[in-house]
Amino acid sequence: MFWIDIKRIIKAGLTNFMRNGFVSLASILIMTVTLFTIGSVLFLLIGLNVSLDEIKQKVDVSVYFKVDAIEEDMMFVQKTIDALPSVFETEYISRDQALENFRLRHEGDELTLQALDELGENPLGAVLNIRAVDPSEYENIANFLKEDPTITRNRTSVIDKVNYFDNQVAIERLSKIISAAEKFGLLLTIILIVVSIIISFNTIRLAIFVSREEISVMKLVGANNKYIRGPFVVSGLIYGLISGLITLIIFYPLTGWIGSASANFFSGLNFFSYYLENFGHFVLILVGGGAMLGALSSFLAVRRYLKN
Fold it and tell me: pTM to 2 decimals?
């Protein structure tokens, strides 16, 4: 009996969908716009996150060791810094590597290289580059190094300078910009998605309004609420499924068209490649989300007429 009722509800939902062709088309178009907006916001949010992550990766703090520092002591400092929960990773650059990097940076400056050669020895100390989990953590890391500069096994200072205090203003401003951008992106996403859902809900509500007399008649003849509501939920489900598929189709050529531009604008993120690599996720979000949105909107919209 249960499966017979399910078949009847599905059949009635398909009949409603086909019979109200113009209303169904309008609902699908509005829901397609809704899902397209949600998908576009997701792309922009992903692009923003990739860009912010790249900016974060370019920010670091460098610890300059004294020229006469023992390597074992410097390794101990690196191990101590690595143990901090706010540190993402560290990179140790030896004196020889620091000298080689210096020569590469000034390979066109013969005067500087000549002066370096005349010294007869390496004047540069080793360097420890530190990347934090979040840019806002650099101040804590720098303060840790400042308050306890003798974090070595024999308690002698090997740290000559920490460049955070030279770049403190720039790093703090950058941290604020990143934080504000993340909050703005999240707020914009929530607002656009909520507005899109409200528009979609009102569209389906209008579609059910057309059938209000039919609902009244079904109530008069004794049909229960589940049987009355079921076909409309099925119709809403169909609206969402079709809208989701249309949106997937639209995004394929669109992301292909703007793929190169997005890679230049969003730090190498090619929307087309990302779309293909994560196609399953987009199917789940757009088609699955569209079906859920359509069914839920229909369920909520028909309640008003069932209470009368």
Answer: 0.67
